[in-house]
Write a structure and sequence with these properties.
Strand order of the largest sheet: 2-10-9-8-5-3-4
Distance between the termini: 42 Å
Mean pLDDT: 97
Largest sheet: 7 strands, mixed
Number of strands: 14
CATH superfamily of the largest domain: Type I PLP-dependent aspartate aminotransferase-like (Major domain)
Radius of gyration: 21 Å
CATH architecture of the largest domain: 3-Layer(aba) Sandwich
Length: 372
């Protein structure tokens, strides 16, 4: 018999900054019979998932895997494996998630420099170029899609600058992967992490990550042990690679089924078609908002199609408006963070949420609130 608490979970249209709506076939995959994490058929599923990830990430990196944990675990995996005490690191910050990178690097004892930019504006390539002229770093790190603001950072252009230097390029693609182009190899990205719950349209719990040969070389030649046992790639690779797999931890088996199916759906639809769908629904949303006189935080050329920050309409209380959307209209959106708290709402059009009927449903609900 189903627990009533679980039985009574409502279906909510997830239009916040994550998680996103999950396709029925992904839920079906999640409900398949659990196999042992060393079962030969499960290892076949692991291998297939890796290949699908490489396609979506546009990479040939051998060290490509979903970390057992949310996007934050992916971030920590990259930093704890690549940083040793006193390593010089440059972090480019224009929102919450850049600040998180800084916090983590400092906790690991790195010597951290930052370039900070106004929230709602992109990282300025020229300032990065000037910083790299006079400073040497082991790692340059940036967030591709800053979820706290809806800004798309110029990751490709920054990558061209980093290529000229003897350092690693680390990129957060938690919100961008599966929604806009993420060309890992072409952009010279050495370490990358993401999350399963946004444009990949899988429940939260896994963090896709990939590492270039250059990054692997840094990991192999560390002077000190990786300070986090659970996320130590020298151990994880023995479980994810080779003919003979070595037990490391009990993988979230059913979550890996779900990610496999979610990636399969993206590859089946075609990456360019997926990107186009996100962009078209973003444009539909923006047009509807403009008709109501509602402004966007970010200038058009820097906007993310999957994360739309809008100024809260005049006369509407932030928390009360979001509460009415959730309780009356069964729609979830996100609040502003940091200096933008109480000023903006964040509307997600990620993955399976990015369909015209969802935009129309949100706009009808918003009109209802404004009319009231």
């Amino acid at each position: 018999m189903m627990n009533n608490t679980l039985k009574n979970i409502e279906e909510i249209l997830l239009m916040g900054p994550g998680p996103s709506c999950v396709p029925a076939s992904v839920y079906t995959a999640l409900s398949k019979k659990t196999l042992g994490h060393m079962d030969p058929y499960f290892i076949k599923i692991m291998d297939e998932t890796k290949v699908l990830l490489q396609k979506v990430l546009m990479t040939k990196n051998n060290l490509t895997l979903p970390v057992s944990g949310t996007g934050s675990a992916g971030m920590e995996t990259c930093f704890v494996n690549l940083i040793e005490k006193d390593d010089p690191v440059l972090i480019l910050i224009n929102g919450v998630f850049g600040k998180r990178m800084q916090d983590l690097a400092e906790r690991l004892g790195a010597k951290v420099d930052t370039l900070e930019f106004e929230w709602g504006k992109p990282v300025e390539v020229e300032r990065v170029k000037e910083q790299l002229k006079t400073n040497s770093y082991k790692i340059v790190a940036v967030v591709h899609a800053e979820t706290s603001t809806g800004v798309r950072n110029p990751v490709k252009e920054i990558g061209e600058l980093v290529k000229e230097k003897d350092c690693l390029y680390l990129v957060d693609t938690v919100t961008s992967l599966g929604g806009i182009e993420v060309a890992t190899d072409a952009w010279g990205i050495d370490a990358l992490y993401s999350g399963s719950q946004k444009c990949l349209s899988c429940p939260p719990g896994l963090a896709p990550a990939t590492f270039s040969a250059k990054a692997v070389d840094v990991i192999v030649n560390r002077k000190s042990k990786v300070p986090n046992w659970y996320l130590d790639l020298s151990l994880l690779t023995k479980y994810w690679e080779g003919k003979t797999r070595v037990y490391h931890h009990t993988a979230p088996v059913n979550m890996l089924y779900a990610l496999n199916q979610a990636l399969y759906l993206i590859v089946e639809e075609g990456l360019e078609n997926v990107y186009r769908r996100h962009l078209e629904n973003h444009k539909k949303l923006v047009a509807g908002l403009e008709e109501l006189g509602i402004s966007m935080l970010v200038e058009p050329e820097f906007r993310l199609p999957m994360l739309n920050s809008i100024y809260i309409p005049k006369g509407i209380d932030d928390a009360a408006g979001r509460k009415e959307l959730r309780l009356k209209y069964k729609i979830e959106i996100g609040a502003g963070l940091g200096p933008l708290a109480g000023k903006i709402w964040r509307i997600g059009l990620m993955g399976h949420t990015a369909h015209p009927e969802n935009v129309e449903r949100f706009m009808a609900a918003l009109k209802g609130i404004l009319k009231k």
